[in-house]
């Protein structure tokens, strides 16, 4: 049994206090963001079909997403002691 929970992310967002989300919660958050129209997605993300696949790719490959001018969405894996 691990001392740490590997599936936790700290999420930083414009005008929000930091949030701790599970991988599943972060996936849902990114899917909601991606469901809105974003023309500024990285080129490699554009090539992936399906919002869920794009969201999983973002979690595995990136730690931030451009969500509009003056706005940000960032996530970082953290280790929380149980």
Observed structural traits:
34% helix, globular, alpha+beta, 82 residues, single chain, four-stranded antiparallel beta sheet
Notes on the structure:
The chain has helices at 23-35, 43-46, 51-61; strands at residues 4-13, 19-22, 64-65, 73-81. The chain is α+β, with helices and mostly antiparallel strands. It has a 4-stranded antiparallel β-sheet. Helix 1 (23-35) crosses helix 3. The longest helix is centred in the middle third of the chain and has 13 residues, at 23-35. The radius of gyration is 13 Å and the shape is globular. 10% of the residues are buried.
Overall average residue pLDDT: 87
Based on the structure, what is the oligomeric state of the protein chains?
single chain
State which percent range the strand residues make up.
25-35%
Strand order of the largest sheet: 2-1-4-3
Contiguous helical run count: 3
The biggest sheet, with number of strands, parallel, antiparallel or mixed sense and barrel status, is:
4 strands, antiparallel
Rounded to the nearest angstrom, the radius of gyration is 13 Å
**Shape label:** globular
Structural category = alpha+beta
How many β-strands, per DSSP? 4
Order of helices and strands: EEHHHEE
Identify low-pLDDT runs: 1-5
Distance between the termini: 10 Å
Q: Can you give the helix content as a percent range? A: 25-40%
